[in-house]
Amino acid sequence: MMPNRVPSWRDNLYHQLLFQHCSLCQLPLTPTERYWCHHCISQFPSPPYCQHCGTTTLIAVSHCGHCLTKPPLWHRLYRLGEFRPPLQQLVHQLKFGGKFWLARPLAQQLAHQITQPAPLLLPVPLHWRRYCWRGFNQSHQLALALGAILNTRVNHHAFQRLRHTPPQQLLTKTQRRNNVRYAFRLRPIALPEHVAIVDDVVTTGATVHQLTQLLTRQGVKQVDIYTLCHTEQSVS
């Protein structure tokens, strides 16, 4: 299984020696570039979005029309971009391609968006069956990298996944809500008033909604969401 840790200086040296070309366009990297060139990073799909729910908007807003009528339980959502190329491919490589080292450079890009870091980061948990199959939890790897960059704590034991659920990708919004209902528990631990849930992709928000519910019931005052990508889903 993959180690649950932030890459060491040996890992960084290994990547410096091995990855001397942009992993997207394959052009040589300059001394100030790592993993991707500045041009490819500029192509990450990052249009303005609602800072509450994460939905793409014409201009950046604190609350969109949907949030004014039916706001999500969490307080703020920070995202790197939309679930479109090239971010889509990078997330797939991280999640399904075993390239766990992509968590750090992606977290570095996401950290630029986070203006008020939470003192505690809680990654979305995997069921032990999926963890054994994948070898690591991509949300945990992202949280570790973000924690190191933002100088915040990470607790990957706070949430527990109680049952194995089908993958969310092919489910409708209603099916996603039902799929994760009662799928998690929050262990009885001391929590600060402000925490952030870390997930790789947010679509309908069904998973982070369930986790936010657990946190607010335990007295947490502010819950933020840190995610790489937000994707729209129009089906009900």
Automatic annotation (TrEMBL):
<dbReference type="GO" id="GO:0016757">
    <property type="term" value="F:glycosyltransferase activity"/>
</dbReference>
<dbReference type="InterPro" id="IPR051910">
    <property type="entry name" value="ComF/GntX_DNA_util-trans"/>
</dbReference>
<comment type="similarity">
    <text>Belongs to the ComF/GntX family.</text>
</comment>
<keyword id="KW-0808">Transferase</keyword>
<dbReference type="Pfam" id="PF00156">
    <property type="entry name" value="Pribosyltran"/>
</dbReference>
<keyword id="KW-0328">Glycosyltransferase</keyword>
<dbReference type="InterPro" id="IPR000836">
    <property type="entry name" value="PRTase_dom"/>
</dbReference>
<protein>
    <submittedName>
        <fullName>Amidophosphoribosyltransferase</fullName>
    </submittedName>
</protein>
<feature type="domain" description="Phosphoribosyltransferase">
    <location>
        <begin position="185"/>
        <end position="231"/>
    </location>
</feature>
<dbReference type="InterPro" id="IPR029057">
    <property type="entry name" value="PRTase-like"/>
</dbReference>
